[in-house]
Design a protein that fits this description.
Blueprint: H1 5-41, E1 43-44, E2 50-51, H2 69-73, E3 74-79, E4 84-88, H3 95-100, E5 102-105, H4 108-121, H5 124-131, E6 136-139, H6 149-167
Antiparallel strand pairs: 1-2, 3-4, 5-6
Helix pairs in contact: 1-6, 4-5
């Protein structure tokens, strides 16, 4: 009876190499989808769940989803065998302050913008922003991208299932 262990070993090695080649792309897609889901649930999915602070703008829709630009900008930045990086594209300047929180300096240019919005909409909210004596606007942290235990569990499950599929 011939022994075909060498052929079986070569077949498994080929499948494992294919798994190694494809898993970073699949991990990147999983991460992008995970971070985009934070916009649907209205907070950062982690252990524990961190709900975003509600907007103070009158008549505002759900927090962080008015235009959807930030959510659409989440994409794969770098994918290699040793590292997968997911982040925000270069065109979204305000994503960092939303993700980390912070203060914005109120400049004369911003006050002119508030007056223009008041004249455009007629809403007193914009007038009071233009007339405020504050020198800064506080932006609360609304984390949507970052390290998450829930993401690690999701990636672990995905990798184990893909490895089982690859080797069976």
């Amino acid at each position: 009876m011939p022994n075909n262990n060498a052929q079986e070993f070569d077949r498994l090695r080929t499948k494992y190499r294919n798994f190694q080649r494809t898993i970073p792309q699949k991990a990147a897609i999983t991460m992008v989808n995970f971070f985009k889901r934070n916009f649907k649930v209205g907070g950062f999915v982690d252990v524990p769940f961190q709900r975003w602070k509600k907007s103070t703008y009158p008549g505002a829709r759900a927090t962080m989803v008015r235009s959807g630009n930030t959510r659409r900008e989440i994409k794969k930045i770098q994918v290699s065998q040793s590292r997968v990086t997911v982040g925000i594209g270069n065109h979204n300047h305000y994503a960092k302050i939303h993700n980390e929180g912070g203060k914005i300096l109120i400049t004369p240019k911003i006050r002119r913008f508030f007056w223009a919005k008041y004249k455009e909409t007629g809403k007193e909210y914009w007038m009071w922003l233009a007339l405020t004596k504050k020198t800064h606007i506080e932006i609360p942290q609304r984390k949507f991208i970052g390290d998450s235990k829930a993401l690690e569990k999701t990636l672990d499950r995905m990798i184990v299932s893909e490895l089982k599929k690859a080797l069976l």
